[in-house]
Amino acid sequence: MEVLAVVSGKGGVGKTTVASNLALELSLTGHKVLLVDCNITTPHLNFYFDIPYMYTLNDVLRGNVELEKAITRVFALDFLPASLNAENLIGVEFEKLSDMLKVEYDYIILDSAPGLGKEASTVLKTAESILYVTIPYLMAVSDVKRIIEIARMMGKNNLGIVVNEIAPGKKELTDEEIETLTNLRVLVHIPFDKKVQDSAIRKLPVNLIFPESKFAQEIKKLVNEITGLPIYQASKFNRFLTLLKKIFI
């Protein structure tokens, strides 16, 4: 089992989009995956799947329900949402996150809160491996560099950086400059892709409904970087068949 945190130095860089599509793509390559929304103050993963749920991570951390009851099946993976209700922040002992995740999965993907607050720091302590998401601008890279340095001091496995272009236009930094600044390899560079916005409107993962998009292709490369397995290529129809088999068989 690998506990992998997807983190960023600031919000608005596409971290949650990367985390959700990475988790789904890992499941499509045959892995058992749990995706956890660890941004309990401002959770966003709920909006990416738009599915009903009864219990959340908040309930588990308060000791109200067992973990298994709060996990929801979505497409080919298991998902543990965070509550959208601000009142459900009361009594949440987030530092119990590490003890809670004693479950059998190939990958547990933690979608962290941005920055270095209490939630993000707890996620860093809990995870074994860290994946960093940034945009190609100096301020964003400087923010993520600080987290990289802290993770190094903690002895974490820094997997690398995902450079994500969330808008068209000129980039301030090249991949080589980002690698020099952070002393960490850029694993993939995702170009701006309007399909990401289209999928958000439909509340479906990009790599499910637009498998040939630029974004989806880079996510496949990212899975290859993480697992070492060949890139999973299939038509949209065959991907839906794979999902149906995983859901119902």
SSE topology sketch:
Blueprint: E1 2-7, H1 15-28, E2 33-37, H2 45-49, H3 57-61, H4 67-70, E3 72-74, E4 77-80, H5 97-100, E5 107-111, H6 118-126, E6 129-134, H7 138-153, E7 157-164, H8 175-182, E8 186-190, H9 194-202, H10 206-209, H11 214-227, H12 236-248
Parallel strand pairs: 1-5, 1-6, 2-4, 2-5, 6-7, 7-8
Antiparallel strand pairs: 3-4
Key attributes of the depicted protein:
Rossmann fold; 8-stranded mixed beta sheet; 249 residues; single chain; 12 helices; 17% strand; globular; alpha/beta; 42% helix
Q: Can you walk through the features of this model?
A:
There is one protein chain. With 249 residues, the protein is α/β, with parallel strands linked by helices. Helix content is 42%, strand content 17%. The protein contains twelve helices and eight strands. Strands 3-4-2-5-1-6-7-8 form an eight-stranded mixed sheet, with helices on both faces. The mean pLDDT is 87.
